[in-house]
Amino acid sequence: MKKTLLSLAFLICVFYGFSQDSKTGVRIGYNISNLDFDPEVPAGVENRHRNGFAIGFFGEYSLSKSLAIAPELQFSAEGAQEEALRIDYIQLPVLFKYQINDLITIGLGPLTNLKVHAYEDGMQNLSFSALAGLEYMLSDTFFLDLRYAYGLTNIFDDEVKLDAINTNIQIGLGVKF
């Protein structure tokens, strides 16, 4: 517990040190997600994509003129269309952003997913993904972004004997303060 508190205090100090050029904001997104089964979709399972939404808050802290780190906290409705394969997450993405020019920024980083509904349904409560994104500034405060998340861990519990990862395309609109 002491190590966790010390690590959290260190991160707050680091972010505060870079806060001379920091922004916060909100974003909403439209999700198109699905599950990639390995080796194939089990018989009797209709694996069709799910349309969902995401909403969250973020901070963006400059590390240099063209580099920034952007942690977020968001809710995201993902998984597949079939009711038993729907997964709603509280997510913690951390994007490392590189500003190409005044309008376009690219980002890469990890994404941690915490499931927010039934905890004993045969799906992992915690999963991890890799995240890539492209952001386009519409004005000084409004932006559009496109993200792709690729699951790195199996979403099913070991007892289920199924392997699948979650994939998600997210189209977002946000505002920076």
Question: Could you please describe the fold and organization of this structure?
Answer:
This protein has an 8-stranded antiparallel beta barrel with strand order 1-2-3-4-5-6-7-8. It is globular and about 55 Å long. Strand 4 (86-99) and strand 5 form a beta hairpin. It has one domain: Porin (Beta Barrel). 9% of the residues lie in helices and 58% in strands. The longest helix is centred in the first third of the chain and has 16 residues, at 2-17. The model has no long low-confidence stretch (mean pLDDT 91). The protein has one helix at 2-17; strands at 22-37, 50-62, 67-79, 86-99, 104-115, 126-137, 142-151, 164-176. It contains 1 helix and 8 strands; from the N terminus they run αββββββββ. The protein is mainly beta.
Keywords:
177 residues; mainly beta; Porin; 8 strands; globular
